[in-house]
Design brief:
- The protein is built from eleven helices and twelve strands.
- The protein is an alpha/beta fold.
- The strands form two sheets. An eight-stranded parallel beta barrel has the order 1-2-3-5-8-9-10-12, surrounded by eight helices. A two-stranded antiparallel sheet has the order 6-7.
Amino acid sequence: MEIGISTFAETSPDVHTGEVMSHAQRLREVVEEIVLADQVGLDVYGVGEHHRKDYAASSPTLVLAAAAAQTKRIRLTSAVTVLSSDDPVRVFQDFATLDGISNGRAEIMAGRGSFIESFPLFGYDLDDYDELFDEKLELLLKLCESEFITWEGKHRPAIRHLGVYPRPVQHPLPVWIGSGGNPESVVRAGLLGLPLVLAIIGGRPVQFAPLVELYKRAAAQAGHDMSKLPVASHSHGFIADHLDDAVEKFFLPTQASMNVIGRERGWGNYTRASYDAARSPEGALYVGDPDTVASKIIHLRKKVGITRFMLHVPLGTMPHAEVMRAIELLGTEVAPRVREEISCWEAAGEPEE
């Protein structure tokens, strides 16, 4: 069971002071958070790509590369790369460079993107949303497989037997598929034999179990070995030494962030009742002391079959010291408890539910 962190490098207004952190400061904080995550034994850190004022990381690879030279073991991934509006050749080159700097710790998490601001920014038509992703994923996978590429598509100029460099340390460079729970994207990942990441940020996580089974069936149908295909989740949460502190400190930033997105997407108002339901044992919010969060991750593994858990922290703007403490607790207290319990299952030969 791998455990790590994801961030979008939010720079939303502080809910207590109204102040807005600079993009530069938040980016420097993220690098510090990655370094700490490595030091406390976490497995992976992901940085999401966005192109809007309230998120600082439009280029995840640059942020990850800044941390790569200061870390030793942690894997470094996007969360996600909006492949539909990017050039797969440049994506490959950027991550191959990161892979070299980190000595084989880079991963690409490719997605279509839940935000759409990158499409007009880079001159793409939203009517081509699905077609762009399918075509560009095909090219990216070819780039990961071969040094010399011959390829032709509809939305990018053809490539005629050209070499693409640098070559990564890993062969092939790992590519994961990020999904918000769309069955078609889950099946696509399974048929291609690519690891899957599910954004479990609402409802009941157990509702994602059928999607994991759908993914496994598609992979088996295509002849892929499921033992080599991990399934990850990305979920919001926060950890503090004491349950009440975690609950109270995380509520207002979460409410503010969810209501900003909710207004854009026509969701209902996010209330304290919404929050308390989401942090309940069956909810999708991983908030509490180390025991509470560890129990929920173990439950997710048992009921859904997740083999990598990524805690998205912070949600909105929170004091850097509090975020650093949450990362420390995840690495030193939560992760060991989760891994120990899973090791006990494996030693006893108990099946997951």
